[in-house]
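Chain A, query sequence.
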Amino acid sequence: MFTYPLDKVTKDGKLFWSQPKRPPCEVQFDPANELHQKLVVSHACLLARVNQIPIPQEKKARAKEVQAEWAALTQQVKCKHFQPSQEKANEINEEVDAQPQQSQMDKQEDVH
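Chain A, predicted structure.
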């Protein structure tokens, strides 16, 4: 959102965030939300498997009580607030500007 804010206009004069693109939105983590609990457990299990760390009582890791407990533990983690880099944003803009613009008709032909 830093590099492409909601009111960003392309070279064509159209809004950058127009169909089919949708802007991302910030979601506040809620340890009581079941979907957020599943995200924490799934991410933890994925990282454990990738790093070949045994998952204790793996079948129980999917239990709702365990999910709630693990999600509650996330409240103890303090993360630094994301600070966007103007330098990185400029790099992204330069890359996008350097790419040739492809018309909507060309894009549709590529799909077929």
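Residues 1-97 form one domain. The CA atoms of residues 74 and 80 lie 14 Å apart.
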